[in-house]
Design a protein that fits this description.
The protein is an alpha/beta fold and 147 residues long. The protein is built from three helices and five strands, in the order E-H-E-H-E-H-E-E. Helix content is 20%, strand content 28%. The longest helix is centred in the N-terminal third of the chain and has 11 residues.
Length: 147
């Protein structure tokens, strides 16, 4: 479809600066979900699925993925181990997002704990923002190699 100026457009395409649109996933991406529980934000999950055009795949998915979301709470175990594990399924350039309860909510994880686990796993936290009423999102990226 073309607009009035002759530019290609997509029906239903959106430049959503909130929610799933901020995560950098594209339509057609395979996004794997770790740490699902009864407390996750179902509206956010649905928004991500609508944005990529398919359901999130679970922890047992057996192929590479374009992105990973990890729901993580303070008492979920060893965050470093999980971050190492999620990197094994991720395609080059894939995105890792860590969703943690906001401060004051049960299961909140301190930013220093996130940064320490990420560093040990060969990652670093690049940005954190509110993604849902009870959840914050932290983008984790690969550490650059020294020159």
């Amino acid at each position: 479809m073309r607009d009035e100026e002759g530019n290609d457009t997509q029906v239903g395409a959106t430049t959503d600066p909130q929610g799933a649109g901020r995560l950098g996933f594209d339509p057609g991406h395979v996004v794997q979900e770790f740490g699902w529980g009864d407390d996750v934000d179902d509206a956010l999950r649905a928004e991500i699925e609508a944005h990529v055009g398919s359901e999130l795949v679970d922890e047992d998915y057996g192929d590479v993925t374009d992105g990973v979301i990890v729901w993580w709470r303070e008492d979920d175990g060893d965050l470093t181990d999980t971050l190492v594990d999620v990197q094994t399924v991720l395609d080059d350039g894939g995105r890792i997002w860590l969703f943690t309860p906001k401060p004051g909510r049960g299961g909140h994880v301190e930013h220093n704990d996130i940064q320490e686990a990420a560093t040990t796993a060969g990652l670093h936290a690049t940005s954190t923002f509110s993604i849902a009423p009870d959840w914050s999102a932290t983008k984790l990226g690969n550490r650059g190699r020294g020159r």
